[in-house]
Amino acid sequence: MSGYRISRSRLADVLFAVAVGAVVLIAAAFDSDTTAVDYGLIAVSSAALAFHRASPQAVLAVSTVAGSAYVLHAHPGPAASLPVFVAVLVAARAGHRGYAAGATMVFLAAYIPTGPTTHDVVERTSLLAGWFLCAVITGMADRNWQAYLRQTEQRALEAERTREEAALRRAGEERLRIARELHDSLTHSISIVKLQAGVAVHLARKRGEEVPAALLAIQDASSEAMRELRSTLEVLRSDEPTGTPALLVERARAAGLAADLKVTGEVRPLPATLDRAVYRIVQEALTNAARHAGPAKVVVQLAYDTDELTISVTDDGTADPARPPKPGVGLTGMRERVTALAGTLHAAPRPEGGFEVRACLPLGEAG
Q1: What is the three-class DSSP state of 157?
Q2: How far apart are CA 345 and CA 323, in angstroms?
Q3: Could you tell me the pTM of the whole model?
Q4: How far apart are CA 258 and CA 171, in angstroms?
Q5: Using one digit for the tens of pLDDT, what is the confidence trace for 196-248?
Q6: Which one of 24, 109, 206, 261 has the minimum C-beta count within 10 Å?
Q7: Does residue 312 contact residue 356 with C-beta atoms inside 8 Å?
Q8: d(CA 363, CA 165)
Q9: What burial class does residue 229 get, using C-beta atoms within 10 Å of its C-beta: 0-12 exposed, 13-18 middle, 19+ buried?
Q10: To 10 degrees, the CA torsion angle through 178, 179, 180, 182?
């Protein structure tokens, strides 16, 4: 696409040079004294304009020399100044104001002797001087306008970046506030419940009494609530990944889960948002497998395709397709992450038994 735009720009420059040259050649054709040398000088002065984007200074020099030689040799009308006029305009627009003014002086000095009378010399030279002055001023004004547009765009981008940083900072502060509130309001209460239940179980066993099932359930539930709360607080305090999927698999193995990692395709660096989502999906899927799959084997697979990354976490645990689980906070958050990245998520028991989490995330602009 970029090469196509460059070709179109080059074609437009060539057509522009041809148009300028055609105007001067037509004007020269009405002069019976025009020679082949004059036509050649016109062609050189005009053809140089085709390269004004790449080298405006060189174009200015070639057009000025060829144009000056032409007016000194043929003594044409004002139309002969058109290629030099355009070259001066382009040079001034590119910021070469001194070169543009110098070229104007050189061409006007060559044009002065072409008038048959003093009155014609003054009139035609003044007219051309006004044209060239307008060209220099127009080029400078256009350059300043382009610089202003670039600065405005830069300020807009900077303002957008500042807004994004402020939003992220506010979100981080809100997460920390929620974490503090949860810690202060829930952790203490749950700890008391867990402690009291543990003391009651201990005393019952010490006296040789049968421990009530409800008391054991309270003790287990409070312990599970404490673990869940700690996990939630960790997420709230830091939403950034603290490792890689490979490290998550290693941690799962160290915790006693039979986990394995498979990576296919060409591994490539991922944008921060996508990398964070991959980490959280694998983390949540492994956590669910450790809690609900029982003594199962878990396989984590990352498949890199040309424009898509597929994350698959499967286990051969106790999940039954006839009794699909109700989506909890973990699966809901996982689906929200995938949807925000224009991806798809499938999380359900497998027909052959066990559970599968499969997320497909685009790697292109949508990701």
Answers
A1: helix
A2: 19
A3: 0.40
A4: 37
A5: 888 888 888 888 888 788 877 887 777 777 777 776 666 666 555 556 888 88
A6: 206
A7: yes
A8: 24
A9: middle
A10: 80
